[in-house]
Amino acid sequence: MDFSSFEPEDFAANESFSEWVLNPDSGSDAFWIDWIERHPKKRKDIEQARQIVLMARSDQSDLPSDGTIERLWTGITQRTARPDNVQKGFFLRLRPALRVAASVAAILVVGLLIYRFWPYSNQVYTTSYGDTMQCRLPDGTLVTLNANSVLRVDRSWQKSGQRKVWLQGEAFFNVHPGIRDGKPVKFVVHTQDLSIEVKGTQFNVNTRKEQTRVVLSEGNIQLHLTEGNSSRTIRMKPGDLVDYSGKSQALSVKRVADTTPLHSWKDRKWILDQTELSEVGTLIRETYGPTVQFGDEALASLKVTGIIPSDNLEDILEALESILPVDIRKSSGKIIVEARNP
Predict the structure, then answer these.
(1) Three-class DSSP labels, 229-280
(2) Of 7, 218, 254, 263, which has the maximum CB count within 10 A?
(3) pLDDT (tens digit, 9 = 90+) per residue, 250-303?
(4) CA 164 to CA 152: how far, in whole Å?
(5) Angstrom distance (rounded) from CA 50 to CA 164
(6) Angle at 233 between CA 228 and CA 237, to 5 degrees
(7) Would you call 202 helix, strand, or coil by DSSP?
(8) Are 10 and 48 in contact (CB under 8 A)?
(9) Which residues, 6+ apart, have CB-to-CB distance to 254 below 8 Å?
(10) Cα–Cα dist 324/285, whole Å
């Protein structure tokens, strides 16, 4: 299929694109990363389409009514240059959730309409591959968002007094203690697997690898897990690491002597201690997009120890070549690792 003429809404409506955003694998990663490299002018359209798909998957409880969406869509279509039959055809072929999200994305183009018709929508922070972001939330909480991540915050936070956010990807939270009517206010992070309840603390949350990993650096937090028809609460102390998958209900709890390496990414570096090269490859894919392939599977088990600056992919690859007896090259949106010839 020729995607060169696609607009963000077209990408979001395409099944193969939305499947890549929600359930990436080595094949889809290689295709789309290579396509983006060959069409750099479409990078912003791809990122906007990605946000549409992620918003569609997110919780829809705060979305406006169907009637409001229809009124807004009518106003949007009157402002665009596309023929009516093209606009209507696109809108009708979207799945219901994507239909809502596409409307929201289009409204962003005429931003004043959001505040006129949708004053209590969520604030959405997104990062693309290779980027990180720091955002200060309404209560003073500082969140560092890792690459390829999405954080949603209720814009009516100040009015409702409820401190709730939704995370896809990875983020480090430095939660400011909140006080309302003389009492501490809970801060809750929702992921696809669990809810994290705190009052003021520092912790890292990673929702990749089809599970949620929580690492506590400071303070105390409670994890609320859903297991079938029942729920479970785990109280974490500094130095605790919890991995949990709501899909498989696999739970792992362990202690780590130093949590710093697990959130060193926020300081734009990776602290590696006898880390297998395959795991470094996973970090590269999650942060920058390309899939790492090994010419010899034995190379995947090579151990890496050291501190590597992580804010530039080329620097990472050069550092790995200097540490290990390997040659690394790029090919068709992939990174190929081969043994270095003597």
Answers:
(1) CEEEEEEECCCEEEEECCCCCCEEEEECCCCHHHHHHHHCEEEEEEEEHHHH
(2) 263
(3) 999 999 999 999 999 999 999 999 999 999 999 999 999 999 999 988 999 999
(4) 9
(5) 23
(6) 140
(7) strand
(8) no
(9) 240, 241
(10) 19
